[in-house]
């Protein structure tokens, strides 16, 4: 008869923990322990406080430095080499156009891929596993590599769209697509199978079931995912540097042709200028950027709380 | 004789069932004097010949052969694990949704091979509706729940009228007519199940399959649905799976009794039909001793 | 009777055929369209590889692979040009190293605190704040690093330091990845079954002991996964290093010297004026390929650890 418990991972961990604890309890000295414990807990608290302090310092510094330049002129003045009249007009317009393009691309493609993977693709087939592996990998590829993809494939190369907002939108859309797919899949998966069975048993086709019952029931989760993706795309700089948003632009951008810039890119450009006035402008731009992102994320949270489907 | 109220009838049935359990169930049928007459035309809706279902090769039911008749309520009874749910899901091709399931044998629906090469499962499900064990209304309004089927199938006609007709048919109209816009999830379990029945009949099926429709409901709701079945069988043919013998005795015209069989080394188990006959015969004078053991409560 | 009305107007005389009323082409079309959406991911990866490979192969036609991988002098614009990539790699690793030294204790400390010590009210406040930190655009972090961390903090401690320091980039990156380490490690720790903790507490163990000797080892795979993921993000990060760490390739791990990371080189070069087809243009893709391979390996390692962490408890 075997007296040892089964050697599963869980048992091993439990045994190790029990052994360590017993040793400590038997050999430990109570007073020393109390001091050690308090110090430890204090260190943990310090760790969190440093992280929070870092965030606070970042926000406060941006606000303090950029405040002098905060005015509505930021939105109306064009980019310029003269800091006294420079603004973010083209940058903001460019960013809005970019994320407009991103939304148009990412919603159908992302939700479509999510529907396929959750409703149609069986994990037994190798190509479905390959698709999932690719999505997982693409979610972790550095953003500048997407810039290289844009430069080599979209701006030049096969698509040859030139340094346009359109090309920038595609590049950013590919970057954030995994976010939408993952969020949409979770939302779709949360719909109970009984809903699908009920619809199918009435004589609805698979697509009718998805379109008329599953998707409406998962819309809240999908919308949240889209907004998160869009806000990520709004703050991205590196890929845009490679697909042409770095040019110095003084007239309003167009979608399919012509030069453009984006808010984070303009912030970056002002930040690299030697004059301190540009640094101040840059900080003001950061405030605008953070406020817009805060608005987007708050909207996403509100949306989720208001329309979440509770099963 | 004064007509009994529903509550009085249900209470009397409940009392009868308790004593019936002790005396054997033959009494249970006799109590319900207002039971509608059985349709004796014997027109066949389904004909099953040697139907077996396997999951990943392992049998779940074996060699089922019997016929389902029009405008009858046909009950499938038997101990748990005998594959009643698996079997009923063959009737509307719902087993198609399970990739590991295979169906052998022949099922004829009004003479057509239900699993024939030209058969569209979606069309089959329109004609053969299903009500599930746990009520599963859509997370939308009562109106939408009923209207979904007709709209999706492109049925013509005034939607308001279709919805009202279906709700009346499920004995739910009076309770909800003033709150059709309310979310279905706010209804009680019994109401939700009647909503699911209304939803089912709104698409004008030929057959209604019911997979233990009352097992998640309280006795009063159960009684209401059993009464509803009597009304519905005039226009539809009903097949019901139930683990509640008394319900089968109360409600059905024909009863099929299934048992669990084990193979030699007790690794696999599957269901097999033992007896299929008029309900009255099954519960008062069954041909097979195994049936008698089951209906008299000697075995569970 | 009500039910009779339904049938009289409907089912009684209607066909009960089982064939489809229409060929249902729409369903097949939908399937193809949805499949196309999903296959886009594979196409994207392929496109990335294609975009990288062409010019990289061209690059290695002119520069021997060994010179590239093991050379210690990166000067593509000089005459004669030198293409040893090690200074860029070391620059990236240096920033990553300093960043991790900063982020790992803070991230794990936060994770342990949230998982073992904090009451629900405190968690409700701190977790969203960490999520806010995770959402700060990297250009803002880079700006903060070069306009605040460097002048106020680093130049005070190291008077000899210049405007650009590897350490400044490192601290910025560290700040960026703390939420990653904290949230994934905290998930891993919370997944440790309560029974393990309770057994230890029942024997008189202190909270610190339980946290460090029971929970931490049990959650190790998840913790390692979070660190590997953070390293991968750090290696691939661009804006912080461009703004704060410098643009002079420098083969050193010295934190107070200015360096250039791989990502910074790519960003700066691609925004400059260089002609297509030249070697200098191709260096963008060669360095990019190396970066892609490095992060790919890190991601594979991380996924392995995540899988192990899931297996233990599921």
Shape of chain B: globular
Cα-atom radius of gyration of chain B: 19 Å
Helix content percent band of chain B? 25-40%
Radius of gyration of chain A: 26 Å
Q: Mean pLDDT of chain A, as a whole number?
A: 88
Please count the helical segments of chain B.
Answer: 12
Q: Do you know the CATH architecture of chain B?
A: 3-Layer(aba) Sandwich
Q: End-to-end distance of chain B, in Å?
A: 39 Å
Tell me the CATH topology of chain B. Rossmann fold
Number of discrete domains of chain B: 1
Look at the helices and sheets of chain B and give the structural class. alpha/beta
Adjacency order of strands in the biggest sheet of chain B: 5-4-1-2-10-9-3-8-7-6
Strand content of chain B: 15-25%
Low-confidence stretches of chain B: 27-33
Task: Report what the structure shows.
The complex is a heterotrimer of chains A (311), B (300) and C (314). Chain A is an all-alpha fold. Chain A folds into two domains: 9-69, no CATH class; 73-307, Orthogonal Bundle (MetI-like fold), CATH 1.10.3720.10. Chain A contains twelve helices and no strands. Chain A has helices spanning 9-27, 30-66, 73-76, 89-120, 126-138, 143-155, 165-189, 193-201, 206-235, 238-242, 263-271, 276-307. In chain A, helix 4 (89-120) runs parallel beside helix 7, helix 9 (206-235) runs antiparallel to helix 12 (276-307) and helix 11 packs antiparallel against helix 12. The longest helix of chain A is centred in the first third of the chain and has 37 residues, at 30-66. In chain A, 48% of the residues are buried. In chain B, 48% of the residues are buried. Chain B has twelve helices and ten strands. Chain B starts with 5 loop residues before the first helix and ends in a 5-residue tail after the last helix. In chain B, helix 5 packs across helix 6 (159-169), helix 6 packs across helix 8 and helix 8 packs parallel to helix 9 (219-232). Chain B has a ten-stranded mixed beta sheet, sandwiched between helices. Chain B is α/β, with parallel strands linked by helices and 300 residues long. Chain B has one domain (6-295): 3-Layer(aba) Sandwich (Rossmann fold), CATH 3.40.50. Chain C has a two-stranded antiparallel ribbon. In chain C, a hairpin with a 6-residue loop joins strand 1 (74-75) and strand 2. Chain C is an all-alpha fold. The model of chain C is unreliable at 1-13 (pLDDT under 50). Chain C has one domain (82-313): MetI-like fold, CATH 1.10.3720. Chains in contact: A-B, A-C, B-C. At the A-B interface, helix 8 and helix 9 of A face helix 4, helix 5 and helix 8 of B.
């Amino acid at each position: 008869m075997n007296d040892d418990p089964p050697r599963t991972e869980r048992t091993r961990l439990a045994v190790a923990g029990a052994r360590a604890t017993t040793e400590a309890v038997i050999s430990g000295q109570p007073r020393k322990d109390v001091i050690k414990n308090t110090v430890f807990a204090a260190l943990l608290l310090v760790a969190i406080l440093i992280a929070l302090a870092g965030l606070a310092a970042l926000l406060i510094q941006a606000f303090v430095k950029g405040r002098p330049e905060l005015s509505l002129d930021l939105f109306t003045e064009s980019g310029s080499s003269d800091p006294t009249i420079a603004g973010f007009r083209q940058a903001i317009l460019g960013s809005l156009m970019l994320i407009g393009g991103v939304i148009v691309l990412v919603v159908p493609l992302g939700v479509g891929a999510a529907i396929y993977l959750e409703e149609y693709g069986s994990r037994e087939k190798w190509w479905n596993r390959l698709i999932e592996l690719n999505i997982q990998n693409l979610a972790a590829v550095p953003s500048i590599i997407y810039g290289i993809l844009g430069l080599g494939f979209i701006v030049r190369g096969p698509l040859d769209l030139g340094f346009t907002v359109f090309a920038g939108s595609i590049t950013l859309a590919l970057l954030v697509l995994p976010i939408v797919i993952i969020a949409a899949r979770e939302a779709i998966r949360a719909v109970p199978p009984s809903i699908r069975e009920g619809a199918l048993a009435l004589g609805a086709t698979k697509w009718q079931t998805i379109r008329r019952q599953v998707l409406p029931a998962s819309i809240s989760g999908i919308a949240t995912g889209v907004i998160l993706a869009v806000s990520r795309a709004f703050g991205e700089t590196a890929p845009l540097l490679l697909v042409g948003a770095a040019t110095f632009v003084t007239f309003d951008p167009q979608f399919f042709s012509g030069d453009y810039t984006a808010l984070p890119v303009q912030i970056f450009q002002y930040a690299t200028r030697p004059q301190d006035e540009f640094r101040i402008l840059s900080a003001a731009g950061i405030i605008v950027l953070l406020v817009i992102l805060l608005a987007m994320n708050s909207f996403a949270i509100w949306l989720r709380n208001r329309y979440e489907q509770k099963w | 004789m004064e007509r009994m109220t529903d509550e009085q009838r249900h209470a009397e049935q409940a009392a009868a069932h308790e004593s019936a359990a002790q005396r054997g169930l033959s009494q249970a049928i006799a109590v319900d004097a207002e039971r509608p007459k059985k349709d004796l035309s014997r027109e066949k809706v389904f004909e099953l010949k040697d139907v077996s279902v396997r999951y990943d090769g392992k049998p779940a039911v074996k060699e089922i052969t019997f016929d389902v008749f029009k405008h009858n309520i046909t009950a499938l009874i038997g101990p748990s694990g005998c594959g009643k749910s698996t079997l009923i899901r063959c009737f509307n091709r719902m087993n198609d949704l399970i990739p590991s399931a295979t169906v052998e044998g022949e099922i004829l629906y009004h003479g057509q091979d239900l699993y024939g090469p030209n058969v569209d499962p979606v069309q089959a499900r329109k004609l053969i509706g299903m009500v599930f064990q746990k009520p599963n209304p859509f997370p939308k309004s009562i109106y939408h729940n009923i209207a979904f089927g007709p709209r999706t199938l492109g049925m013509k006609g005034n939607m308001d009228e279709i919805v009202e007709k279906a709700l009346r048919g499920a004995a739910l109209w009076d309770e909800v007519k003033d709150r059709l816009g309310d979310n279905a999830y706010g209804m009680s379990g019994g109401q939700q199940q009647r909503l699911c029945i209304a939803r089912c009949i709104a698409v004008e099926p030929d057959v209604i399959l019911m997979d233990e429709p009352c097992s998640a409901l309280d006795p009063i709701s159960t009684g209401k649905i059993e009464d509803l079945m009597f009304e519905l069988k005039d226009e539809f043919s009903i097949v019901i799976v139930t683990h509640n013998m008394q319900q089968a005795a109360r409600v059905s015209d024909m009863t099929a009794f299934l048992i669990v069989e084990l193979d030699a080394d007790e690794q696999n188990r599957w269901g097999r039909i033992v007896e299929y006959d008029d309900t009255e015969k099954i519960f008062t004078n069954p041909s097979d001793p195994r049936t008698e053991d089951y209906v008299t409560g000697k075995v569970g | 009777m009500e039910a009779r009305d339904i049938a009289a107007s409907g089912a009684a005389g209607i066909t009960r055929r089982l064939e489809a009323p229409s060929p249902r082409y729409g369903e097949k079309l939908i399937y193809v369209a949805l499949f196309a959406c999903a296959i886009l991911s594979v196409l994207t990866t392929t496109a990335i590889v294609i975009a990288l490979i062409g010019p990289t192969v061209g690059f290695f036609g002119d520069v021997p692979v060994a010179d590239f991988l093991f050379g210690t002098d990166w000067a593509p614009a000089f005459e004669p040009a030198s293409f040893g990539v090690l200074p860029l790699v070391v620059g990236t690793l240096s920033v990553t190293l300093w960043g991790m030294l900063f982020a790992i204790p803070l991230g794990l400390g936060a994770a342990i605190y949230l998982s073992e010590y904090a009451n629900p009210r405190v968690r409700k406040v701190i977790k969203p704040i960490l999520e806010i930190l995770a959402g700060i655009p990297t250009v803002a972090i880079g700006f903060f690093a070069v306009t605040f961390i460097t002048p106020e903090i680093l130049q005070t401690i190291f008077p000899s330091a210049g405007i650009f320091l590897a350490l400044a980039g490192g601290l910025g990156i560290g700040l960026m990845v703390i939420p990653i380490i904290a949230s994934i490690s905290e998930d891993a720790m919370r997944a440790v079954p309560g029974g393990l903790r309770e057994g230890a507490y029942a024997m008189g163990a202190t909270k610190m002991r339980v946290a460090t000797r029971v929970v931490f080892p049990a959650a190790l795979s998840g913790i390692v996964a979070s660190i590997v993921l953070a390293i991968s993000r750090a290696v691939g990060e661009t804006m912080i290093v461009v703004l704060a760490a410098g643009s002079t390739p420098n083969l050193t791990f010295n934190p107070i010297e200015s360096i250039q990371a791989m990502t910074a080189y790519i960003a700066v070069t691609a925004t400059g004026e260089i002609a297509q087809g030249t070697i200098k243009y191709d260096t963008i893709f060669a360095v990019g390929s190396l970066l892609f391979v490095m992060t790919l390996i890190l991601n594979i390692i991380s996924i392995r650890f995540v899988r192990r962490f899931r297996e233990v408890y599921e």
